[in-house]
Amino acid sequence: MPEPTEFPNPWQFDPRIRQSGNVYYMADEVLVATPDVGVVQGELENELGARRPGVSGRSMSRVTRFVLPGATGSLGRRSALDAPAIVRRLRNRPDRPRVGLNHVFAGNGIFTGQPKLHGGAGTDPRPTPCPLPAAEPPVEGSRPVKVAILDTGMDPASLALPIFARHPMHGTHEPDPVYENPATRAISLMGGHGTAVAGIVARYAPNAELTSIQVLNQFGVTDELNLTAAVERAGAAGAEIIVMSLGGAVLPEESVDELATMFDVLSPGTVLVAAAGNTETEIEDYFPARAARVFSVAAIDTTGDQKVPAPFSNSGDWITACAPGVGVHCAYPAGTWNFTTGDPIVSAGYIAWSGTSFSAPYVAARIAATTRENETVSEAAARLRSGLLGTFPRHGGYLEAPPNLLAP
Question: Which of 199, 203, 279, 394 is the most buried if burial means most Cβ atoms within 10 Å?
């Protein structure tokens, strides 16, 4: 495995983001359950000077965002008010309004076996000229399944790659911003993450209908409010499986209740698959993987003589499954990646990428690919789970993958 080098922390690209232990949140924002807005409106708007901006194209039905003074749209500005203190103050009111921080989540992908998030180190990506193998043939007796990928979106140019061009079924793909600088085609920190995840599903679930929901920005960051809206868009698209290769720690005591009920808008039969995270901990409050009804996926390193848990992967009794996640052969936008030290790295459209981000879509693809006619995806997921092996304690049941999941 390559020697580690310093890898940019995704949080550094937005100065609005603050940290409290393992938790990241928007410093200038407070979320309120919409039915409780009338309870706290006077205190937030009249006493504290907060405002309620609209969010174009995003659902605001369940949660309302209040922006504190000092947040004028300029990333360099920061509020003089302390969002966690305001949340605690409001929650201690006698009428107990449902308020919380706007937690921040990030894409879990890393370019090596070392954790990148929370200030960790990473190593250089490994571009490969080797095209992806052809998609597996459909499983006999299986049916098409709608799969929504909540990620950075899909790079439109990458749809010309054979793995997508030959894929027979596509829904709507919200575009991936991809580039930090479009003029120089310099790929951003997490640009192409959604393309990589979608490519794994396309390879192993060839009769799935793929839909891309853009919730992570090109730096791989999103927040609680936008994730809630993305889940609603996936539900409206009829998704039967939702893949979320993203996550972050939350503070339950400083979270609006709607975070816990985010998935209630979905059909009860919808299967949710989420990456377990790359922070190399046994963290308990890692969302969305830790949420009820979520199929959480850890990563296994199969690149050596022995299969072992990936050193970056989170672990715990709450994890459902694990699958290979080191050196996964992924589709990737063609361009230049220049965030590491040294010379820029050029991608020809394929890359080796590591992380629980890439274990999760493989598990989702296997569920989709083996869903039979007259069977729900939740039934297929339960059947797959019952056949997993308890090879790796505190990493869930192990799902074997073919060697061609990894890059040559």
Answer: 199
